[in-house]
Write a structure and sequence with these properties.
Belongs to the PPR family. P subfamily. InterPro entries: PPR_rpt, TPR-like_helical_dom_sf. Keywords: Repeat. This is Pentacotripeptide-repeat region of PRORP domain-containing protein. By secondary structure, the protein is mostly helical. Among the domains are: 72 residues, no CATH class; 55 residues, no CATH class. Helices cover 73% and strands 0% of the residues. The protein is built from 14 helices and no strands. It is elongated, with a radius of gyration of 23 Å. The two termini are 37 Å apart.
Length: 248
């Protein structure tokens, strides 16, 4: 309820952002210092600012409450990282914030690492992203299928098949099963390097695991078989794709 009220207030089109932000922050600090209000209210305020795209104000709030020994929760900071990443040119900003905030007491979790690993991969820094994956255990976090799949996709776009297979083995040794994203990346790579038959086998394995395919995967395979000159099999896949699409 409190979050919705704050959100509605900050969504007003005629709101003077700078003045309103300063005023509300002063009131929140006053009630916290003098009346012992719940510090979670700062977290709620931070989330609303970030969700509305007021990232600079969110950063000011974060810096201000540090003076009172308060830290924004990791879940709220993850929303902040995601918003930074999704802004134009925001990948580097997200990475910068990720490495700076632990110095003031913030503790990241697996979701935080996944955001930054994705950012590094988008920046073409696959090795750096992989290095971060290797550090997760040392920092008290456990990588999940999203972590591994993001790294796998990065190496797939580099054409590093052997590295991809090695990481898949590592992932499976930790009882993590490849998901749709993992298979899609591997099928893309196999088609890119001319191993179209192996890519089609990967599709069958994916379907046998109960993981649904999509038009992107089928289009990649159809294109691969067309390049091989196997038009008949390409048509077979096209018909299969249409049947799958009609089923949903």
């Amino acid at each position: 309820m409190a979050q919705q009220l704050i959100h509605d207030f900050w969504s007003k089109p005629d709101l003077e952002i700078g003045l309103s932000f300063s005023y509300i922050l002063e009131r929140l600090i006053y009630t916290y210092k003098d009346w012992g209000s719940d510090p979670k209210v700062f977290d709620v305020f931070f989330q609303v600012l970030v969700e509305l795209g007021l990232l600079d104000e969110g950063k000011k709030l974060f810096d201000k409450i540090l003076n009172y020994g308060l830290i924004i929760s990791v879940d709220s900071l993850n929303i902040y990282l995601s918003k930074l990443r999704d802004h134009l040119g925001g990948f580097w900003r997200a990475v910068k914030v990720f490495f700076e905030l632990p110095d003031v007491g913030s503790c990241w979790n697996t979701a935080s690492y996944n955001i930054i690993i994705h950012s590094l991969c988008k920046l073409g820094k696959i090795k750096e992203a992989h290095r971060l994956l290797l550090q997760l255990g040392l920092r008290g976090c456990i990588p999940d299928v999203v972590t591994y799949s993001t790294i796998i996709d990065g190496y797939c776009h580099m054409g590093r098949l052997q590295m991809v297979l090695r990481i898949i083995d590592e992932m499976q040794s930790k009882a993590l099963k490849p998901n749709h994203y993992t298979y899609s990346s591997v099928i893309y790579l196999l088609c890119e390097i001319g191993k179209v038959v192996e890519a089609e086998k990967a599709l069958r394995e994916m379907l046998n695991q109960g993981i649904l395919s999509d038009s992107v995967v089928y289009t990649t395979l159809i294109d691969g078989f067309c390049k091989l000159g196997n038009i008949a099999f390409a048509y077979k896949l096209l018909n299969e794709c249409v049947e799958v699409s009609m089923a949903f």
